[in-house]
């Protein structure tokens, strides 16, 4: 909900909690690109032995509850990948998020599927290794992408967000299966407008 003070529109406070460096770096780039939004991006470190999705949601929920009254957020998003999570585990994530009013930003197999969409349309699933190798090529990042991950994306992607959104929109339209049953999949495109209050990408 957009808050108002003395009849002036106050932008909603948005929190984005991420599991990895790539996610944090990407959303920090969007924050710079769409500088009018009131968005805070934070990486949450959790026990790697646990199941990333639910553990991340629980940690984010705990952080939200600890916020002082002066810093209460209007909407929280948690960003994570499929990794090795089962469908049952992803369904549990969906239930927890709904109960705690958190929105899930999810990519399968990982966020690199969304990164690739800045350059091309996607019609099939990729492994993590395939994505790293593809993004390392000259026409993409022209460096070892596995080592690049977590660095600023601005020079490579900031002017390609519209392309990524259009490619992701097409991918979502191609199937009506639930998100946890789909690969490739990302829903980052569906949240850009509401997070950053933009209609042009």
Keywords, separated by commas or semicolons:
alpha/beta, 9 helices, two-stranded antiparallel sheet, 5-stranded mixed beta sheet, 201 residues
Largest sheet: 5 strands, mixed
List unreliable stretches of 5+ residues. 1-5
Helix-and-strand structural type:
alpha/beta
Overall number of strands: 7
**Beta-strand content:** 15-25%
Q: Rg, please?
A: 17 Å
Assembly category? single chain
Helix content: 40-55%
Shape: globular
Main sheet: strand order: 4-3-5-6-7
The H/E string reads EEEHEHEHEHHHHHEH
* Terminal CA distance: 23 Å
Total separate domains: 1
Mean pLDDT: 92
* Number of continuous helical runs: 9
Protein name: RloB family protein
Brief account:
The chain is an alpha/beta fold.
Description:
By secondary structure, the protein is of the alpha/beta class. It has one domain. It has nine helices and seven strands; from the N terminus they run E-E-E-H-E-H-E-H-E-H-H-H-H-H-E-H. The protein has helices at 21-33, 52-66, 87-99, 112-116, 128-135, 145-148, 154-157, 161-173, 188-196; strands at residues 3-5, 8-10, 14-18, 39-43, 75-81, 102-108, 185-186. The strands form two sheets. Strands 4-3-5-6-7 form a five-stranded mixed sheet, with helices on both faces. It has a two-stranded antiparallel ribbon with strand order 1-2. Helix 2 runs parallel beside helix 3 (87-99). It is globular. The model is unreliable at 1-5 (pLDDT under 50).
């Amino acid at each position: 909900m957009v808050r108002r003070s003395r009849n002036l529109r106050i932008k909603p406070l948005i929190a984005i909690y991420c599991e990895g460096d790539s996610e944090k770096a990407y959303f920090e780039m969007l924050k710079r690109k769409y500088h009018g939004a009131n968005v805070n991006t934070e990486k949450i470190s959790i026990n790697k032995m646990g199941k990333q999705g639910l553990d991340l949601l629980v940690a984010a929920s705990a952080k939200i509850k600890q916020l002082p009254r002066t810093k209460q957020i209007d909407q929280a998003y948690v960003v994570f990948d499929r990794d090795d999570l089962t469908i049952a585990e992803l369904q549990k994530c969906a239930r927890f998020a709904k109960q705690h009013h958190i929105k899930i930003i999810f990519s399968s197999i990982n966020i690199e599927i969304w990164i690739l969409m800045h350059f091309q349309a996607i019609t099939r699933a990729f492994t993590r290794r395939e994505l790293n190798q593809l993004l390392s090529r000259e026409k993409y990042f022209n460096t070892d992408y596995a080592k690049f991950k977590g660095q600023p994306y601005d020079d490579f992607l900031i002017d390609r967000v519209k392309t990524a959104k259009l490619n992701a929109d097409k991918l979502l339209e191609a199937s009506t299966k639930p998100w946890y049953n789909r690969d490739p999949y990302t829903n980052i495109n569906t949240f850009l407008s509401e997070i950053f209050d933009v209609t042009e990408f």
